[in-house]
Amino acid sequence: MDITLDQKDGQQSALLTVRLTEADYSEAVEKQIKDLSKKAQIKGFRPGKVPAGLVRKMYGKGVLVDEINRLLQTNVDTYIKENNLRILGEPLPVPSNVDFDTQKDFEFQFELGLLPEFELPVAELEVERPVVELDENTLNETYEQIGMQFGENSAPEASEAGDYISGTLSKEGTELSHKVMLPTNKLKNDADKFVGLKAGDKVSFDLKNIFDGDAAAIANFSGISKDEAAQVEGEYTLEVEKINRSKKAEFDQDLFDKVFGKDTVTTKEDFDAKVRETIQENYTRESDNLLNRRLIETLVEKTSIELPKEFFKKWLIAANKGKLTPEQVEEHYADYERELKWSMIRNKVVEEQDLKVSNDEIVDRTMTKIMGQFNLPEVSDELRESVRGFADNYLRQENGKNYMNEYEAILAEKVLDNLRGRIVVKDQPMTAEDFRNQASA
Predict the structure, then answer these.
(1) CA pair distance 101, 60, nearest whole angstrom
(2) What is the largest CA-CA distance in the chain?
(3) pLDDT of 384-396, one tens digit each?
(4) Cα–Cα–Cα angle for 308, 310, 315, nearest 5°?
């Protein structure tokens, strides 16, 4: 057997050629034919007495093809590992005309996509981390949501100011037909149009005017994009289906217990502080997520990696086995390239920083998730053992897929933690409204 690699300097692809002679496969083929002759059940012959020549005639070609494929896979993989070739995906066979009936010697070629070495410019990077400053408007909205969520709900026959009106929004001459819920307490103009409405009624109104041109409010109500909402003009129609009315809950001990658990807070002052703390924790978590997205985008953009583009496109089509067309690959190639670059960057961080995930970390994370689902912040040793059993059972399911998913999630967190510790992170103070706009962009 002879294996050669043809790689021109500076190119990201190479041609691997494998040459086989009869001596490379004949012994293994003959052994398999002898084994088959002992097991074959053919009419007219006793078991184990089928002539090897007959077996060779009937099954020889299939045995030869299987053995050559095994030789190719084993030796190509070994060659790649022994020569430390960093390849993209899998080798792609080059189409060829092979006659297994007459040929004794064979030549096969494989196209390889080679991944380059690269450096991470972490010391040169700077990423902004949003720091949300709570404002009274956000707090007031939160209190309103709490009051409505835990209040008494009813479905009156006719609408009054402050009700929520469910129905279908449409506009004549367009295909718009969205199920919506109109919060009449958010209306800035013409609120009287929406008083006294009943199921089945239709009301026409200037969508831009009722929200006083607030594109965010228009988008939230109508379900159209914020860009479209900024351009709305003309009359819209709402066909009423249901009136929803909520009587806000009293801010008493009963509400405190419903929101945070029994006796977690016992005064309005403690409740206010706990609400602020909870909102801030939520924004901190979302801020960290936004920071991570910015970090990934910045690294992918600033890290210079020359990819074997043409090979990558071929491999995407081959690997997806008919689910992707060349046209689809071209259309979405920028997204595929971004994902590949981030995967390479991530793997480089894992390798250089020697990041590892232990089995205990995987089990602990799974147990924490389970306890969170059942709202079990603290458990007894006996119950903890039961939760451990649930976790072990979950991680064994799906043929180990759940285990690998947890492993990958923890490893991804460690990569991002490591990168955040090596780049410049600058605080970016902003209001809650500005943050929500950035996070949804």
Answers:
(1) 9
(2) 97
(3) 788 888 899 999 9
(4) 90
Average pLDDT over residues 14-19: 95
φ, ψ of residue 7 to 5 degrees: the values are: -130, 125
Dihedral-angle region of residue 415 (phi above 0 means left; psi in -120 to 50 means alpha; beta otherwise): alpha
Percent of the chain past pLDDT 70, that is, above it, reads: 96
Query: pTM for the whole thing?
Result: 0.73
Q: Which two tokens stand for residue 92?
A: 């792609």
Closest CA to 86 of 142, 14, 28: 14
DSSP class per residue in 361-416: HHHHHHHHHHHHHTT-SS--HHHHHHHHHHHHHHHHTGGGHHHHHHHHHHHHHHHH
**Which pair of tokens denotes residue 192?**
């009287």
Q: Look up residue 196 and give its DSSP letter.
A: S
Q: What is the pLDDT of residues 366-421, one digit of tens each?
A: 998 888 777 665 667 777 788 888 899 999 998 889 999 999 999 999 999 999 99
**Three-class DSSP category at 126:** strand
Q: Which amino acid is at 265?
A: V
Q: Are strands 126-133 and 235-247 parallel, antiparallel or unpaired?
A: unpaired
Any idea of the CA torsion for 336, 341, 347, 349, to the nearest 10 degrees? -150
The conformation of residue 87, written as its DSSP 8-state character, comes to B
The helix/strand/coil state of 131 is strand
Which of 141-172 are b and which e, b meaning 16 or more Cβ less than 10 Å from the residue's Cβ?
ebeeebbbebeeeeeeeebeeebbbbbebbbe
